[in-house]
Amino acid sequence: MNEEIKLYTISIYTENNIGLLNRVSAIFQRRHINIESLTTSQSEIDGVNRFVIVVNITESQAKRIVGQFEKQIEVIRAYYHTEEETIFTESCMFKIKSALLFEEPQIQNIIKDSNTRIVTVNKEFFVLEKSGRRNEIESLRRDLNVYGIMQFVRSGRIAVTKDEMKITEMLQAFNNQ
Amino acid sequence: MDTETENKTQGVASKTMRIKGCEAVVRSLIAEGVDILYGYPGGAIMPVYDELYKFQNEIHHVLTRHEQGAAHAAQGYARISGKVGVAMATSGPGATNLITGIADAQIDSTPVVCITGQVFSHLLGSDAFQETDIVGISTPVTKWNCQVTKASEIPGVIAKAFYIAKSGRPGPVLIDITKDAQQGELDYEYEPCKGVRSYVPIPKTNPDAVKAAADLINAAKKPMIVWGQGVILGKAEEELKAVIEKAGIPSAWTILGASAIPTSHPLNIGMVGMHGNYAPNKLTNECDVLIAIGMRFDDRVTGKLDVYAKQAKVIHFDIDPAEIDKNVKTDVAVIGDSKDSLAQLLPLLNVNTHESWLQEFKDLYAIEFEKVIKHDLTPTKEGLTMGEVLKQINIETKGNAAIVSDVGQHQMITCRYADFNITKSNITSGGLGTMGFALPAAIGAKMGAPDREVVAIIGDGGYQMNIQELGTIFQQKVPVKIVVLNNEFLGMVRQWQQLFFDKRYASTEMTNPDFVTIAKGYYIQGKRVTKREELADAVKEMIASEESYFLEVCVEKEDNVFPMVPTGASVSDVRLS
Question: A61 and A82 in one domain?
């Protein structure tokens, strides 16, 4: 009975609908499941949105929750995947005082070694951006924190799955009915 | 969907009419076949009411005395007729008062469309007078909901609402229409909704799953069916009966499944669950194959889950894939429409009788009869029992009435003892357990099936939660029969206090008004019965009445409902006292 709790990535393909985020978050809230991260964007299909939600749960919980999502009228399909079944990334931004770039030459090495991109530089501050795994972002944050960070922000996880999700076929089948 | 309708409307000018949104609301309802709706007017919905006034020959609006009454009346109408019930209210408190009924319809899968008025769209989010985020509030308790801010969206959204409410596993839908959308103009043309691309109402039954189910059933020595409301919603009563009879399977029902198979059927072994019958509860944990049909393994049915039917292979027929493995792990899941799935199952089943297995049910019934039923139906003590009232109603209605019950002890007694010959006859609030449900639901039920006898059976607590609907009964002349079983207690809570809280009767005793006088105040004839010898004649008089009738029966104050599976106990540990 004691199932392993681990990170699952839930992908939900939906119609673009105003109230849907509410329905999606309510399903987690009712079950006291904490959302680790949530992103929503256009999917590969025009007019179809995709939620990518990361939660720390058991597989049977994941299965039941996906059932609840699919029950929502505007949800086309929902899936859950383990970390091994997805390719995923997060991105982050740092805003740092420009003076530090000259006073602390080590910062330039950190930027270079971590493949971090400089988005913009002006007299007061410069902005860095990096995509990658959580541990890479965390270590970058630790490294830069030594010198002082004006602002830090990290996105939720975005992920694509290794296996196919046949949404286009499903929608076509509906159109052909 | 909406833009499609719009384009077509513009393209075929000859078929369209230039009308206001409020008129489009009423015309769309009529186009959906609605001839009756329940509601309460107010500022934000007034344009629609003005149209209802103009269309009163086509569509009958029933003014309830509270919006909650409108929602429950729409439910009662839907439950007895199988059609979509419609409730209407204004914004703000009008809309929020519908919520209990909507939540009830959601958990009991009742097709209801609620239409609420909303403040002008330019005022949305400004905390305007009677503005409330009803779409936000109703989201967790609706199958679908939608706010309309443009007149042109109205016919498309209403078509979609009806389609979603009644298709697949039915449920409530709420449409919130801003006042400017009601007042604005559109080119009106009505096209019923034929599908929503992200929504599969009825998953196709997988023949392999049906085959696997048939194999398990054919090999079973001690099969047992538990059916639920899915059989009624799927209009699969005949198919279920054929399956039961061919394979000779003892079959029990959940509270909402009651009446799908007549009470008198020899293979109908009674109700499962907390106050269900002794035999089906006990033998759930002895059957070798448990066949669940259109039911959802509610905690009141299963008792303690990790000791529920562990010895059995479980087959689960359901239209909703999310129900599979939700509470009970299944061995074979047959996802699809119950009528279709059972029709596919029937030819694969072997003829059987399971006589000795059926005898086990009969033996346990005999125990329940001796210990409980006998004392409920033919009591020898002085006080009246709820059971003997039901027995008398059975005699007078010959089991042909639709029974609407509220929530509590009287509800359990009603479900246990009412005779049902006709399907869709047990109208009660099962999942949500909404006190106050019965009186308004009975109004809707009687209006949804005017030719049927409708008897509402209500406790003195629940009766007073929506007692104002006596006004609706009087104004609309709804010939519904109302029985209040008065024990001057919130009986079920009191029973729990007696059993589990050392008789500390915290806030369960009720000092009641003169109910007969109240009924008479609404010009409803009424009678109070306090003695056994008065009961038969009073029930007879009530059923014979052509008009609405109120009957109060003063029953024993501290009777308990048994059998009982205490919360958290195994169904095997069902108590008889």
Answer: yes
